[in-house]
């Protein structure tokens, strides 16, 4: 078999006719290149021969043509392979272009007596047709292969992404319900959640530009930073600044990540939310009122550096309140007429009176009922704000007895002093947490310790040094003003210090941890201890519940707290009662 | 064989006399399908214009890919130096829907909206 020759299968029982046809075709070879001809007597032997010869063209000679049946032709075409093979009949000029031959299903005819020029033209045209088909099939096969490879790669990538998601605490609490529905195999929307020291819940819903692999890849740096910083106790704003800077460095110029990030503190019963470029989150109060928490910042990754503090929205946590987050895939779900689902329909679904616990399904059903085709990745998250139970509680419920596992505690102390430079923008808590995490037994009451350190440090900074007024925090607007003052006060700080001293004393396995926090401020105003300016309500109640002793003296800037290093189980039960 | 319908969107551009200001008008859906046309509209101009005006009066919808293209134009106009003064890209005549998309993303903080 000559490679690249144009292969013609001739079916003709009459020897003379067969010879004439072969000569005719060989004559054409000069015009159109190599031709390989195979002559067989009937359809039956042609069918047998087809798979080996793989003809580009089949010609039924004048004697064979009248005997061909539609079934023969169909079988020939099937056997010849995936490329369409034209079948020609030889007919004499005298025969009418009869319906008989057309009904058999041939593609064209050769007229006898033969006109070599016309035959050559026809063969050349058919050869171009065959070449075209061949390249089309080759392209199709290549695309099929690429598509199969792509799906395979995406399936592997999806596996990696879903494994990364295991770090989240999304399935550890009943307070969070979520639905993530990627448009393709991979998701450009990402949801991450983790508990911070002190039992705070941190959550992030992000939506990368576009969808598919490029969008999903952005989730890697995002989640790795989130899951490494949250458990170390970094603040909301610090984590956001880090995420923004990292995404700015790694993403191409036309990509960014719209994100909502929130922090829920079940002990102090407040929430903080940052929205950069996402649709407004919706806070549904028990009363049925809706409050929209709108985007106040550019998406993450747009600017190299950014101030996120002023974009953070504060809100109280009340029993019966729910927070709803969504990506714009929900707004932009379209029906058959091309209308978008839109914010109004979404809010109608959120505010509809409903048996508690059914609203999430109701909203999803409303979107799915409306939308005909999914155009974008689609995400919906519901958080029952009052039910965000801290992790330590679930730990003690599971029956672990931490005080039994503590070995030697050791006698040690740490002293830590922060000057104005550090206080301006550094966050000393993650550093302290990482040091304390190395101490034997510390893991068992990391949460209590985080709360105490956090409260005492913030008290020293906000009230001791910056003299901020907690009374401001009684209203929503005041809350925002308070944090604005905190932010600007911190940036203007030019003098002062905060000293943190930790001392552990081992008393045969049941030790005491003493935490002393002192600042350079003038101290607590006389007659105000425990109320008003210093510890507004919740903070103090919380500290008293956790600590064995708490010493706050009017006129002094020194606060001393003593914790039992070992009676964790009973303490955290008390803590839980307080949170509920 | 199904060939996806081509969006009816178009990009046209006009350079002011003297080449100081370039106006790019985007009609229809400003989305990923326009990225080549949109980039072609402002690249390889010599001397580079000092001001860029994006006329959105004929723009019906704008997606996050379009926001990305605007960021690329901003990078192009800043020439890699972020602090080099105010970026001279103006977004003009956006309809309510398009303006809302720009505002949700807070693009008014890095572009001039008019």
Order of strands in the sheet with the most strands of chain A? 2-1-3-4-5
Shape of chain B: globular
Total beta strand runs of chain A: 20
Mean pLDDT of chain B: 84
Q: What class would the helix/strand composition of chain A place it in?
A: alpha+beta
In the CATH hierarchy, the architecture of the largest domain in chain A is 4-Layer Sandwich
Helix amount of chain B = 25-40%
Secondary structural class of chain B: alpha/beta
Would you identify the regions of chain A where 5 or more consecutive residues have pLDDT less than 50? 392-405, 527-535, 567-580
Helix content of chain A: 40-55%
CATH superfamily annotation of the largest domain in chain A: PPM-type phosphatase domain
Just give the CATH class of chain B.
Alpha Beta
**Distance N to C terminus of chain B:** 44 Å
The shape of chain A, in one word, is: elongated
Number of strands of chain B: 6
Oligomeric status:
heterodimer
Pfam family, one (chain B): STAS_2
InterPro entries (chain B): MlaB-like_STAS, STAS_dom, STAS_dom_sf
Protein name (chain B): STAS domain-containing protein
Domain STAS (chain B): 11-114
Question: Please, could you describe this protein's structure?
Answer:
The complex is a heterodimer of chains A (about 575) and B (about 110). With about 575 residues, chain A is α+β, with helices and mostly antiparallel strands. In chain A, about 40% of the residues lie in helices and about 20% in strands. Chain A has 19 helices and 20 strands. In chain A, the strands form 4 sheets. A 5-stranded parallel sheet of chain A has the order 2-1-3-4-5. In chain A, strands 6-15-14-11-12 form a 5-stranded antiparallel sheet. In chain A, strand 17 and strand 18 (about 510-520) form a beta hairpin. Chain A starts with 5 loop residues before the first strand and ends with a helix. With about 110 residues, chain B is of the alpha/beta class. In chain B, strands 1, 2, 3, 4, 5 and 6 form a 6-stranded mixed sheet that branches. Mean pLDDT of chain B is about 85; it is low at about 1-5. Chains A and B meet through loops of A and helix 2 of B. Chain B: InterPro entries: MlaB-like_STAS (IPR058548), STAS_dom (IPR002645), STAS_dom_sf (IPR036513). Chain B: This is STAS domain-containing protein.
């Amino acid at each position: 078999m000559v490679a690249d020759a144009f292969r013609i299968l001739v079916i003709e029982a009459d020897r003379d006719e067969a010879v004439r046809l072969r000569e005719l075709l060989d004559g054409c070879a000069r015009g159109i290149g190599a031709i390989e001809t195979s002559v067989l007597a009937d359809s039956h032997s042609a069918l047998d021969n087809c798979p080996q010869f793989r003809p580009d063209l089949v010609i039924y000679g004048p004697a064979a043509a009248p005997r061909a049946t539609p079934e023969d032709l169909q079988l020939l075409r099937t056997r010849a392979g995936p490329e369409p093979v034209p079948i020609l009949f030889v007919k004499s000029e005298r025969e009418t272009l009869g319906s008989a031959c057309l009904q058999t299903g041939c593609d064209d005819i050769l007229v006898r007596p033969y006109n070599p020029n016309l035959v050559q033209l026809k063969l050349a045209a058919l050869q171009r047709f065959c070449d075209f088909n061949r390249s089309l099939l080759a392209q199709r096969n290549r695309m099929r292969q690429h598509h199969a490879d792509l799906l395979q790669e995406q399936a592997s990538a999806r596996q990696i992404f879903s494994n990364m998601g295991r770090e989240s605490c999304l399935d550890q609490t009943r307070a969070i319900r979520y639905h993530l529905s990627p448009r393709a195999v991979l998701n450009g929307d990402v949801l991450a959640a983790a508990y911070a020291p002190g039992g705070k819940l941190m959550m992030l819903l992000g939506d990368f530009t576009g969808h598919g692999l490029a969008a999903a890849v952005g989730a890697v740096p995002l989640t790795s930073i989130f899951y490494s910083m949250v458990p170390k106790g970094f603040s909301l704003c610090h984590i956001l600044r880090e995420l923004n800077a990292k995404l700015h460095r790694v993403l191409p110029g036309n990509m960014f990540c719209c994100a909502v990030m929130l922090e829920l503190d079940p002990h102090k019963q407040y929430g903080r939310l940052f929205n950069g470029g996402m649709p407004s989150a919706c806070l549904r109060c028990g009363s049925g009122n809706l409050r929209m928490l709108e985007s106040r910042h550019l998406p993450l990754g747009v600017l190299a550096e950014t101030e996120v503090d002023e974009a953070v929205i504060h809100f109280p946590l009340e029993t019966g309140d729910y927070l709803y987050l969504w990506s714009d895939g929900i707004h932009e779900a379209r029906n058959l007429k091309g209308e978008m689902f839109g914010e109004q329909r979404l809010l109608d679904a959120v505010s509809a009176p409903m048996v508690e616990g059914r609203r999430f399904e109701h909203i999803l059903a409303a979107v799915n009922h409306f939308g005909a085709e999914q155009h974008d990745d689609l995400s919906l998250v519901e958080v029952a704000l009052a039910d965000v139970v801290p992790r330590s509680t679930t730990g003690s419920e599971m029956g672990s007895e931490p005080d039994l596992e503590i070995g030697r505690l050791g006698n040690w102390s740490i002293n830590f002093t922060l000057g104005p430079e550090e206080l301006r923008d550094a966050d000393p808590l993650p550093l302290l947490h990482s040091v304390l995490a190395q101490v034997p037994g510390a893991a068992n009451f990391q949460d209590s310790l985080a709360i105490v350190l956090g409260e005492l440090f913030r008290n020293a900074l906000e009230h001791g040094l910056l003299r901020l007024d907690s009374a401001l925090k009684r209203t929503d607007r005041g809350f925002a003003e308070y944090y604005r003052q905190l932010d600007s006060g911190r940036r203007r700080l030019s003098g002062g210090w905060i000293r943190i001293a930790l001392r552990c004393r081992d008393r045969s396995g049941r030790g005491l941890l003493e935490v002393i926090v002192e600042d350079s401020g003038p101290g607590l105003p006389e007659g105000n201890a425990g109320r008003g300016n210093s510890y507004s309500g919740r903070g103090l109640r919380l500290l008293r519940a956790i600590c064995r002793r708490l010493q706050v003296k009017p006129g002094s800037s020194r606060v001393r707290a003593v914790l039992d290093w070992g009676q964790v189980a009973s303490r955290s039960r008390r803590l839980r009662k307080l949170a509920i | 064989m199904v060939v996806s319908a081509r969006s009816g969107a178009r990009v046209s551009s006009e350079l002011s006399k003297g080449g100081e200001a370039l106006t790019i008008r985007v009609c229809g859906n400003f989305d990923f399908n326009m990225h080549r046309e949109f980039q072609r509209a402002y690249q390889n101009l010599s001397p580079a214009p000092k001001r860029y005006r994006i006329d959105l009066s004929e723009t019906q919808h704008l997606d996050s890919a379009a926001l990305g293209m605007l960021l690329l134009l901003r990078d192009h106009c800043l020439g890699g130096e972020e602090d080099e003064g105010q970026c001279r890209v103006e977004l003009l005549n956006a309809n309510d829907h398009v303006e809302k998309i720009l505002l949700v993303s807070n693009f008014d903080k890095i572009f001039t909206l008019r």
